[in-house]
Amino acid sequence: MGSRPHHKFSEGGVFFLGAILFVLIFLSTLIARGEIFGYQDRDGHWYFPGSGTRKRACMKPESSRMSGEEFMQAYQDTIRKASTIFGVDQTLIKAVIKAESDFDHHAVSRKGATGLMQLMPETAQEMQVGNPFNPAENIFGGTRYLASLLRRFHNDTTLAVAAFNAGPRRVEACGSVPPIRETKQFVGRVLYYYGLFERRTE
Fold it and tell me: At a CB cut-off of 8 Å and minimum separation 6, what does 23 contact?
């Protein structure tokens, strides 16, 4: 009888290499589709390409962004409660959420703002938001912050919204919407959505 042919890899080795190849193909597909925008190290910290900073998010589920109608149905009670507690118009809360994250509770900006109302880490901490990716926590924290800005700017919605984006000190420094393109566009979007949502409730 002839000797058995010598195989370079055992059956287990071939299976292992096949599994690695499958994972690489799967990951490359996700990256191409834009569903992965960060990775986690062994200490649990998340990293984002090009940001140079660590943030608390990585995989973006396909269902993370709801349609406007789905969002209103899911979080109307939360928005109503936040509105009542902090004295902020429900329609304004919805408009800020739409302009900030388009109803995506996993949203993360390059500057590190997170969640539905795009809270910066220091703002989230100040507003006692433990998990900014939790929709209810983010809505309550963001509404509480918006309420403080409305009080600070004597219920001037335009200035409060500008401060939500650029910070209150910048708004106070110039006494109006700061000449910052991003801030001007943000204020315009919020006021547009405010009018749109208001007409829907009439």
Answer: none
Comparing CA positions, the residue from 166, 192, 190, 160 lying closest to residue 179 is: 166
| pTM recorded for the entire structure | 0.68
Which CATH number is associated with domain 68-200? 1.10.530.10
Exposure of 19 in the CB half-sphere (CA atoms within 13 A): 6
106-132, pLDDT tens digit by residue? 999 999 999 999 999 999 999 999 999
Terminal Cα distance for the chain, rounded: 90
Which residue ranges make up each domain of the chain?
Answer: 11-55, 68-200
Residue written as token pair 């979007």: 189
Active site residues per annotation: 100
State the burial class of residue 139 (Cβ atoms within 10 Å of its Cβ: 0-12, 13-18, 19+). Answer: buried
Q: pLDDT (tens digit, 9 = 90+) per residue, 61-95?
A: 344 677 878 888 889 999 999 999 999 999 999 99
